[in-house]
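Crash report, auto-generated. Payload:
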Amino acid sequence: MALVIINPKGVAPWIDALKQVDPNLDIRTFPNDSNREEIHFALTWRHPYGIFKDYPNLKCISSMGAGVDHLLRDPELPDDAFITRLVDPYLAKDMAEFVLALIMNHLRDLNAFKIKQTQVIWKPADYLRIKDVKVGIMGMGAIGRQVASELQKTGFNVSGWARTEKRGIGLTVYSGLTEFPTFLNNTDVLVCVLPLTEATKGILNKDCFKQLPKNAFIINVGRGEQVVEADLLQYISEGHLSGASLDVFTEEPLPIDSPLWKHPRINITPHIASITNPESVAAQIVENYYRCKEGKVLLNLVSREKGY
Ligand code: OXD
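Recovered output after restart:
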């Protein structure tokens, strides 16, 4: 039994991290792997679609990140392979710190001062205070909960929204479409960390924006396809939303002619909110490799039906 790594961005740090955990692991790398019938486990990020049909004995396909939308979009994904994802406490912590930085940037409107600096203008302005700002987090999985907990520690009033009811996680969590309007009405800064599914595609649209209080701010660190860009631009230009910070886009890299690039009220970052560290997830990959070999229940199994 062997494991193949498929990652157009490079494989070396992944091989090193896996070998640290288990030096005997039989690791192959795409596209230079031969005898593909020996491969039972694939560790992948944005693989070329259709390639899995060349691996007749694949039992498990693991995403190299938290998201699995890049996998589930493959029309030729083998029906009988388990899909898993990585759950990395450092990834969640990095995400929480990034969201905190974006919110603080918004509260103090640091971008506006940067623009004034380039114009040599000294002009003090009022600012928002943490205690007065309600943050609403869409997505209450491992990442959403960690973001919520870090923001609460900083003093924010935080609530969450999830597809299904969630209790006992130390904050008010609204659930389902029926409670979505109440959640939005009580949110000054909307943070999306949702996975991309059929139900979440385009969820950040005008119906959502109009239910937010005036001057609300949007942070999207989920997936680009969740935002209807035209609606976002309209609600910012009409002054209902005060701006947005976007880290993810439908097309990445963001095309050079996108109107988002030069918008003064939109911050763009290149999908860097949190990056999986091979060293911190290698043990769970190796654990799943052996579970797969022994026919045991896998860690962080994904439901194809739910899409996460
Ligand atoms: C992930 C990501 O899914 O980096 O891990 O977007």
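Post-recovery validation: The chain has a mean pLDDT of 97.
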